[in-house]
Amino acid sequence: MTLLISGPNGSGKSTLVKMISGVLTPTEGEVKATSDGNDAGPMLHAIIGLVSPHLQMYEEFSARENLQFALSVRGLNALHSGIQPLLEELQLKGRIDDPVRTFSSGMKQRVKYAFALNHQPPILILDEPMANLDSNGIELVKHIMVEQRTAGILIVATNDITDVDGYDQRVDLGKRP
């Protein structure tokens, strides 16, 4: 299932994505996630992967160290062996142990994808998924999106609907000029 959240800059796409993923708490109303009919709130971090241009990494850590830390926070130390293949799949081979501060913005975006995918979440949320990526990175992300559609739920927030090759449902947060 794919949900497209569209709208112009400033329409609230990123804010909505942050509320869905549990990063922000709504000031009114509520966002409720369920898994098999049960409240998923306590385990939300385990079922959602989030990629956003606003996510921060530890610049002094390597890509590998950033992912090891993220897995440890999630209590998933056993998956550390999957870090290197994931980073290589995301076209970071040869730079895995370099400090993130030495990465281009596109390489940092790929590390953010590794953060989101390292625990194989059933729900993947992408905020402006093609931000800072070159043509190889865009093709890689399109492949990730196709895989996620078959494996689980994909939520994409973008002001460029050509980023998404198809969707099941759409929420439009503002009129286009």
Secondary-structure element order, N to C: EHEEHEHHHEHEE
Shape: globular
CATH topology value: Rossmann fold
Strand count: 7
Strand order of the largest sheet: 4-5-6-1-7
Q: State the helical fraction.
A: 25-40%
Under CATH, the homologous superfamily reads P-loop containing nucleotide triphosphate hydrolases
Q: What is the CATH first-level class name?
A: Alpha Beta
Assembly classification: single chain
The CATH architecture category equals: 3-Layer(aba) Sandwich
Separation of termini?
A: 29 Å
Mean pLDDT comes to: 88
Query: Unreliable runs, pLDDT <50, ≥5 residues?
Result: none
Strand portion, in percent?
Answer: 15-25%
How would a textbook summarize the main sheet? Answer: 5 strands, parallel
Radius of gyration: 16 Å
Task: Give the helices and strands, then pairings.
Blueprint: E1 2-6, H1 13-20, E2 34-35, E3 38-39, H2 44-47, E4 48-51, H3 63-73, H4 83-89, H5 105-117, E5 123-127, H6 135-151, E6 153-158, E7 169-172
Parallel strand pairs: 1-6, 1-7, 4-5, 5-6
Antiparallel strand pairs: 2-3
Structural features, described:
By secondary structure, this protein is an alpha/beta fold. It has a single domain, classed as Rossmann fold (3-Layer(aba) Sandwich). It has six helices and seven strands. Helix 6 links the parallel strand 5 and strand 6. The model has no long low-confidence stretch (mean pLDDT 88).
Descriptive tags:
Rossmann fold, 6 helices, alpha/beta, 177 residues
Précis, in short:
The protein is α/β, with parallel strands linked by helices and 177 residues long.
